[in-house]
Amino acid sequence: RELQTLAAEQAALSRVAVAVATERTPDGLFNVVTEEVARLFGARWASTVRYEESAEQVVVVGEWHEGDDFELKLGSRFPLGGGAITRVKETVRPARIEYELGPDSRRREMVAAPIVVSGRIWGATSISMPAPDSFPPDAEERLGKFTSLVAVALANAEAREQLSALAEEQAALARVALAVASERDPQRVFDVVTEESAGVLGAEGSNL
């Protein structure tokens, strides 16, 4: 059983690693990770969320469920209310809790692990199942292997964005320098500067 569990985990990690290497944007990765961890641990529900920096709430970026009984949808927001995802944000460590949901007080168990990008907490992936079922004792550590791969993908995406922005800035500066060196009419230089600065900074307008 231990060998089967290890083989299943390595296969799931391999599929996630392929997604990390091939998906051009992290958005395509979130549902892959969420479904892989749900199936690996036998969860009934699973989600990947991003913490909002400006508010005490999270955004659902990946979701998987079994059957028709589910509460979360992609893009939905909900406040941090003291559960496992809240604890992960506060401690930047995996968390496990039991909680009750709904008017009939259905008990569930949830395990969540942090997604840490460049030293800061970005989000979390969580899995849950109804009681009396329970996840294995090492579920937190094993779930962390998957969130680490998500963090790599996000860091790579941020690095690509930074390099792209730097390249655009250098190209704009080169065009301005060329205009300064070659244009005899100052008005043309003014136009180039205002246009290039607006483009680099993503402004809707610019004036000099």
What does this structure look like?
With 208 residues, this protein is α+β, with helices and mostly antiparallel strands. The protein is 50% helix and 24% strand. The chain has five helices and six strands, in the order ααβββαβββαα. The protein has a six-stranded antiparallel β-sheet, with helices on both faces. A hairpin with a 4-residue loop joins strand 4 and strand 5. Helix 1 packs antiparallel against helix 2 (27-41). The mean pLDDT is 86.
What's the quick description here?
With 208 residues, the chain is an alpha+beta fold. Helices cover 50% and strands 24% of the residues. It has a six-stranded antiparallel β-sheet, with helices on both faces.
User: What order do the strands of the largest sheet run in, or round the barrel if closed?
Assistant: 3-2-1-6-5-4
Beta-strand segment tally:
6
> What's the story with the biggest beta sheet?
6 strands, antiparallel
Output the structural class.
Answer: alpha+beta
Global Rg = 23 Å
Number of helices: 5
- End-to-end separation: 71 Å
Low-confidence stretches: none
**Into which percent range does the helicity of residues fall?**
40-55%
Q: How much of the polypeptide forms β-strand, as a percent range?
A: 15-25%
What is the overall pLDDT average? Answer: 86
